[in-house]
Amino acid sequence: MQLLKNILNTDLGNIQEKVIDDHRLDSEDGIRLFESPDILAIGNLANLVRERINKNRAYYIINRHINYTNICKNRCKFCAFSRDNDEEGAYQMSIKEILDKASQIIHEKATELHIVGGLHPELGLDYYVEMIGSIHERFPHVHIQAFTAVEIAHFADISGMSIYETLKKLKDAGLGSLPGGGAEVFSTDVRKELCPEKLSGEEWLNTMRTAHNLGMRSNATMLYGHIESHKDRINHLLKLRELQDETGGFMSFIPLAFHPKNTDLKDFSSTAGM
What we know:
Number of helices: 11
Radius of gyration: 20 Å
CATH class of the largest domain: Alpha Beta
CATH superfamily of the largest domain: Aldolase class I
Distance between the termini: 23 Å
Helix content: 40-55%
CATH topology of the largest domain: TIM Barrel
Number of strands: 6
CATH architecture of the largest domain: Alpha-Beta Barrel
Number of domains: 2
Largest sheet: 3 strands, parallel
Structural class: alpha/beta
């Protein structure tokens, strides 16, 4: 409690009052938190909220990852994964290879498969539906979390179907939930600079809204530590909060620290949580 008393003597005092009284923080509060050097006080306030929501409980999953292709039509400046079709190191897994890989990495304690890949310009929607259906048939006890909102929008585009129709077809095949990748930072200016070919922030949110309304939950992410500002981060978080208020469909928020090695932004310094 002494730490809480000390917070009252800092510029975070009224933020503490909001947290204790269970009042929501606003954009201005968020900026102040990002600009404050008092990481211990901020952590203590965050822990108050955590204990209020989860008591003394923590949750985790045991999952295994499959990246079915690194071939991607987009060229995001922060990406070190994507390759052109004819580029050295490019690959695309067949359905059999995916099933073989799943057999190798799934053991009795694994409860989830996490599956993502690049936006392959030549694969049709049938490939992805068969992938999910085959995995679900072989491993019915394993939850399948697959395809970011960016991939879903790509599948809809190549198939001529709506986002709803695309998600419904994948759900019927066995898709359980969506990972949160591709959100990056919702700022239009940041996306124009770093990933102009990628769907917009609003399109990402609308794709997740559609998934949630279909009964599929998802994660949410934010890529930080590149060219974004504190205001960009806060606006991103507020948009996620607004959608969560509407649908309740996000299972978790995952902040992703940007790693510049082997990207077009390789001269940037690595970032961390502080």
